[in-house]
Amino acid sequence: MRTLSIRKLLHRESIKRSLFAVTVVVCIGWVAGCQSKTASVTTGLFPRANEVSGWAMVGKTRMFTADNLYEYIDGAADKFTQAGLERAQTTDYRFQDKVEATADIYTMKNPEAARRIFEEESSPGSQALQLGDRAELSKGTLLFTHGRYYVKVVAFDNSPGIAGGLETLGRAIEAKLAGT
């Protein structure tokens, strides 16, 4: 009888250790998954602070999906989700410590979806650029596509020199996208 209760006790302890080990493995996997997601969002596609002459990244990169894009671009989110948005990432920059700008990278399901958004957002009279698959610059806004990416960089001031600055930042973003 005493042998039976020792066996039960040992069996219970074995189960507890196994459950504890499984819990630890699951927690480690969850934490690692969260870290890798954060790293890809915050370090991957955008040039970091001072990587591009005259430009400094301000704040953290934010990510949106089709489910919550309206929180960022309410009113225009449907156009992106209907075209095939997978995710949008956005970050803020400052040019020469004066001009605020926002860079958005929309990852679409395919290059045709990126082209479709580019064409819908294109402005008459804009200047075509040799950047990515197609690009244009107009009144403080740079638009371009690179494969399945649609990129929009908007400066909140159209002061002299900003067009060249936007093109420089756009080329740095394109170089990051080319590495994906």
Fold and architecture overview:
This protein is an alpha+beta fold and 180 residues long. Helix content is 45%, strand content 28%. It contains 5 helices and 7 strands; from the N terminus they run αβααββαββββα. The protein has helices at residues 2-43, 70-73, 77-83, 111-121, 162-178, and strands at residues 55-64, 85-95, 99-108, 127-128, 134-138, 141-146, 149-155. It has a 7-stranded antiparallel β-sheet. A hairpin with a 5-residue loop joins strand 4 and strand 5 (134-138). Residues 19-43 have low confidence and may be disordered.
Please give the CATH class of the largest domain. Answer: Alpha Beta
Mean pLDDT across all amino acids: 83
The number of helical runs is: 5
Domain tally:
2
DSSP summary, beta strand count: 7
Structural class computed from helices and strand pairing: alpha+beta
User: Under CATH, the topology of the largest domain is which?
Assistant: Protein Transport Mog1p, Chain A
Q: SSE order in H/E notation?
A: HEHHEEHEEEEH
Instruction: Please give the oligomerization state of what you see.
Output: single chain
Residue stretches low in confidence (pLDDT < 50, at least 5 long) are: 19-43
In percent, how helical is the residue content?
40-55%
The largest sheet has its strands arranged as 1-2-3-7-6-5-4
CATH architecture of the largest domain: 3-Layer(aba) Sandwich
Shape descriptor:
globular
Q: Strand percentage, roughly?
A: 25-35%
Distance between the termini: 66 Å
Rg computed from alpha carbons, rounded to a whole number of angstroms: 24 Å
